[in-house]
Amino acid sequence: MSFPWAEEYKPKHPFMRWLDDRLPLPRMVYNATGKGYPVPRNLNHFWNFGVLAGLALVLQIVTGIVLAMHYNSNADTAFASVEHIMRDVNGGWFLRYLHANGASFFFVVVYVHIFRGLYYGSYKAPREMVWMLGLVIFLLMMATAFMGYVLPWGQMSFWASKVITGLFGAIPVVGEPIQNWLLGGFAPDQATLTRFFSLHYLLPFVIAGVVILHIWALHIHGSGNPTGVDVKSPQDTVPFHPYYTAKDGFGVFLALLLLAVLVFFLPNYLGHPDNYIPANPLSTPAHIVPEWYFWPFYAILRAFTFDFILPAKLWGVLAMFGSILLLFFLPWLDKSPVRSGSYRPKFRMFFWILILDVLVLGWCGGMPAEEPYVMISQLATIYYFAHFLIILPVLSWVEKTLPLPNSISESVLHGEAAEAAPLGAAPAKA
Amino acid sequence: MPRVYQAPASGPILRVRGLLYSGFGHTKDIMAAVDKSEQAEPAAEGGIRRRDFLNIGAAAAGGVGAVAFLFPLINQMNPSADVLALAQIDVDVGPIQAGQAIKTMWRKQPIFIRNLTPAEQAAANAVDTGSLRDPQTLDERTKEGHRNWLITLGVCTHLGCVPLGAAEGEPKGEFGGYFCPCHGSHYDTAARIRKGPAPRNLEVPEYEFISDTSVRIG
Known about the structure:
By secondary structure, chain A is mainly α. Chain A has a single domain (40-419), classed as Cytochrome Bc1 Complex, Chain C, CATH 1.20.810. Chain A is 61% helix and 1% strand. Chain B contains 5 helices and 11 strands. Chain B has helices spanning 27-35, 50-75, 81-85, 118-125, 138-141; strands at residues 14-16, 19-21, 89-92, 101-106, 109-115, 149-153, 176-180, 185-188, 193-195, 207-211, 214-217. The chains are: A mainly alpha, B alpha+beta.
């Protein structure tokens, strides 16, 4: 679906007409990213991040396929094969650093994308499916990133695979058999490595499939916008091409520039030096932390230190998974009819507190499991859940929102009535 | 009436092949221009608009970037440093008696090193090179002062099988050199193709004698 004023695809060249009659692929592209897709004219640069996430996925798949040509998923030779990539393969260091930092890049843009959605109420009707499919992508990304991190079979790889599969060991009764089933043994070994490699190769394509659903669902009602006001007339939109191809292109340029800085000047900044030590099942590194993008969740996991009806270990695991699963219910927890945080002064305040809270969780997740970090994690975890389960439902009930603009074009033109009025019509009387 | 961008008397001027443009117009003007899209901007003298220049510039920069990124993606499939490091071997040929041959490996491919007897050399030299499919003399295929050492790749030039004839007891073909059992190519005592489908003689790799009994191949 698109707006009725969307330009229709009219191929001029006889071959394009012939093709359109048989395989209307150019028509689909035209209607998705071309002149045939009207988009709210007021999108700001936070709307770049969906495209950036798509770019990151493509980058990861392309570099990953290439790395798989040289990687060896054998517990005895995996570590050496990664060093072989770094030292012997032509440009191998570049491809591996691009892939490793590309994962961080992917999570950076996806986190901005998610918080964009949280601020502007992108999860609200009629875009709940877009939101939930996005969360599915996020979960798949986490699984993929985790398994990818295991592949170099260094110390952090090995102990990450042990600790993360240990999470499933927290499940009562069936926990341990599940952990052994995941590992294919009693500790990470050859069977673990081979299956992780297989799934690490598979899941990105599953992600790509869900991305198609995500975009499909998005295109039913079209992008939201910073005002949260629905599109009402052709004046509220501009065609995707050239306006947003250009704007996205600019965002892509800046993002790739930052990625290049990371890859060429700080390639190991986000990594952990212990992973350059081959896996050793007899020695755990002194300070074991996951990659930065898991830190907030890791902090929630470790925040539970006491048994309360259920064992502490199980609480930690439930809370960690719960912190993401909770977001699936967000469209029904936040019932405020106003989408955009720009018109919700109290929501906006709590939104920034949530950002701060997640950053604090992330900081604690990267620190050792000692005081005061445990105490801070506990408080931050309580706030995280309170934000979604108490503050948002109450806010949507009691908050007095600011008046919304009548239309997107009115908000863009800052009340210049003559410009905002439909073409040829007399300006509305204020 | 179309709006024409005109450079004010003061202010920076960007000159691009006859195009004059300066700064941004008033915000309101730009918003009005957006609705009329590209038609609002007229072609300046020379028929090139500012936007044409930007489009070409952006596409060119993007294209160069894409090609630069493509290069390592393709180049990674070339032989890696550890493979290239094995591309040179030293072989001690001292123990090889006249009439004997050995097989060794170079770049993961078989190499035949053969100590020709005077009779085999004479047989190779007796052939009229004009009658050969791939005309070469024995002298062209061996080194000065080491005419008895025939060093070739053990890879049939037809489809890459390993010909027989180097090891003791293997058939040497109708011309006393090598015989490829895959499709029946016969090579003579200078490892030249004489009969069968192979297009060229067995390849002579780059090599040099670093002493009387030691050969460096590659």
